[in-house]
Amino acid sequence: MALGLLIIRLVLGLTIAAHGTQKVFGWFGGYGPKGTGGFFDSIGIKPGVLMAVVAGLSEIVGGLFFAAGLWTPLAAALIIITMLVAIIKVHYKSYWSTSNGFEYNLLLIAAALGVALIGAGDYSLDALF
Hints:
Structural class: mainly alpha
């Protein structure tokens, strides 16, 4: 079970952290704070640039902590809150991700919540404390 949790934590956490770097640094094809902030402004999340940085930092911190299994409930909460906002503001009109729906966001929420509820496992920093 510990190895399975490690795989889930690493893949989900590092993927979420990479999404955050798109918003904050423009890495991996992202638009950075200005581009993401413009989009945020257009959907009513204001001030856009500040909120893009906040969302990106939540994804980076939440993702890296989740991957490491450090303060896993807090890390999962950061991921879940970010995904809920994405669903409410952008993806709520459709379920399937092929039509810009919330399918992917829901999977991330379920995985983060599941790990938070059962614990990060033996191969985590939480296990050391």
